[in-house]
Amino acid sequence: MWGPPARGAALLRRALRRGLVPGRSKRTVCGGSEKAWVRPSGFDTGVVTFNSLSKKKEPLILARDRVATWYSCGPTVYDQAHLGHACSYVRFDILQRVLSRCFGVVVVHAMVITDIDDKIIQRSWQENVSPAVISRMYEEEFKKDMLSLKVIPPAVYLRVTENVHRIVAFIEGIIRNGNAYATKEGDVYFDVQSIGDRYGRFTGATGSHGEQGSSIKRDPRDFALWKKSKPREPYWESPWGPGRPGWHIECSTIASHIFGNQLDIHSGGVDLAFPHHENEMAQSEAYHQCRQWANYFLHSGHLHLKGSSEKMSKSLKNYITIKDFLQSHSASEFRMFCLLTKYRSAIDYGAGSMAEARASLETIRTFMEAAEAYMRGQLRCSPVQEAFLWERLLEAKSSVLKALADDFDTPRAVGALMNMIYHGNCQLQPVAVADEAACSPAVFGAMVTFIREMLEVFGVDLVQDKEADVSSRSGSLQAVVEQLTRFRSEVREFALARQDSPSSGSSGKPGLYPDRAPLLKACDTLRNDLAPLGVLIKDRGSTSTWEIKGDQESRIQTRTDGAEIL
Q: Locate the tRNA synthetases class I catalytic domain: which residues (predicted)?
């Protein structure tokens, strides 16, 4: 679960630095002005991944044996998280699961929570509460959303506001190394010219792109490390006067606090590559005086609403919150939606793409249920081609592993699974009479086991989805039965209404309207027809009760002058 930040960070840092994880490879600390990526030495995971630093696929080599240090940019907590956020976090959660469970790598993941920012301050003004109230509320909402999506929590998360003293010290180190300068106004800027042509490793970092700020910046590309305080804004004391951290410096400081001067993997959305990740690298390498602070940058593609070229974002007001999404879809459906595209690709969200994800899960579920029925002897089939299915299983295992080792190619891995399922379904053709001696349950057991293992790797839980679906359907059934019983009671009450005096020559019950007798008979027929279906209706005078067999909750419907459901 999401543990206390301070203690979790201390324990994690202590474990890494005292050697409580497998051995660490040597690292060359050097200067130089080259932008070229340097392949690290260490443990080769057997995975190749697209590295945004080299702009091509590279072998994933870790500094420590079977341990990956992984830092990700967390949320700025001023509002509810939406599907654009979910897409990035779920995709990287899948990558971490694959790396851990398929390739035996322990992933040590740290994440920052940005709990002080212009947007948080503005929201606090709107709500007339402190920024801390806003940030804590939406931080907890974010964590709940991630757990709902089955995202494994990081080993540690750290809030910016609890690390300002470290940020100040980090900035002081950059200034001492000659890579930053303070202004007379009380701001501190990173000096981009001081690192030569090493700035600009991500697309978009060249030219005169820069932050708006003081007119006395030395270069338009210089960016803020420390911002002087403004009226009504939170501030912290510093050697340059009261103020608060710039955006980029928080990640460099916190990642360095946990992992030191070497980081294996840094992840985030593609929109963060520039300027955020570019500036992170610049200030981190300036502080540590090294050539390559992070060895791999992995970037996920944007999520778009179907038919729109714009990414889903709060600023564009084109977002769907995670909570709203989960009202009509399951976490497993969203995960399958993510699995069907490469993590680096842009992804279109719409009814069609969600229907495809749901259909894929249903195909898997249907096959597993049929295979289990076959193994129990409840599904009779013609003799299966057992050797052929064993070959398809081995082929699927090999193809899935190769796909995942090739830049975590989940669409190809899912395709290999679905191909195996197709061949299995072809063999599970029901027949009226079958030779039980020719039954081959073992191969289907192996196929089902492999599917379960891979679904667990991907974080897909068909059992929980089925239970939720059954629960939802049970609730719907109860509502239908309740309305049906209410209608029947009204009809029955109408049929049982008595006349002031019996009709002459009537063969019906005294005082009843003879022409309403068929309605009573229809009510009895309905009650009798529902009983075999598990819906029991009991009539006691003007009172009707009903219950669904196997349901923990029964309903009592009473008809007097009005209707009351208890």
A: 65-357
Residue-wise pLDDT for 401-445, tens only, equals 999 999 999 999 999 999 999 999 999 988 877 666 567 899 999
Gap between the Cα atoms of 339 and 344, Å rounded: 11
- Cβ atoms of 261 and 29 within 8 Å: the answer is yes
Listed as ranges, residues in the chain with pLDDT below 50 are 1-4, 6, 18-33, 205-208, 471-472, 508, 552-566
Helix ranges (DSSP H) in 61-117 = 83-101
- Cis upstream peptide for 245 (omega within 30°): no
Measured CA to CA, the distance from residue 330 to residue 157 in angstroms comes to: 26
DSSP class of 542? T
Q: How much is the pTM? A: 0.79
Question: Which tokens is 402 given?
Answer: 């190769």
Kindly state the tokens that stand for 133: 């109230």
Q: Which of 288, 316, 286, 322 is nearest to 304 (CA)?
A: 316
Q: What's the pLDDT score for residue 488? A: 86
Cβ contact 210:233 at 8 Å:
no
Helices (H), 386-461: 386-405, 410-427, 441-458
Tell me 512's DSSP state: B
Q: How far apart are CA 470 and CA 207, in angstroms?
A: 58
**Do residues 311 and 304 lie in contact, with contact meaning Cβ atoms separated by under 8 Å?**
yes
- Decide: 22 and 66 in contact? Cβ < 8 Å: yes
pLDDT of residue 373: 92
Residue 303 pairs in a beta bridge with 347
SS (H, E, C) 213-269: CCCCCCCCCCCEEEEECCCCCCCECCCCCCEEECCCHHHHHHHHHHHCCCEEEEEEE
Integer Cα distance of 314 and 8 in angstroms: 31
Residue 112's DSSP bridge partners are 158
Nearest one of 485, 496, 494, 503 to 546, comparing CA atoms: 485
CA-only gyration radius of the chain, Å: 32
Does residue 477 contact residue 548 with C-beta atoms inside 8 Å?
yes
Average pLDDT, the chain: 86
Q: Which of 233, 251, 252 is nearest to 243 (CA)?
A: 233
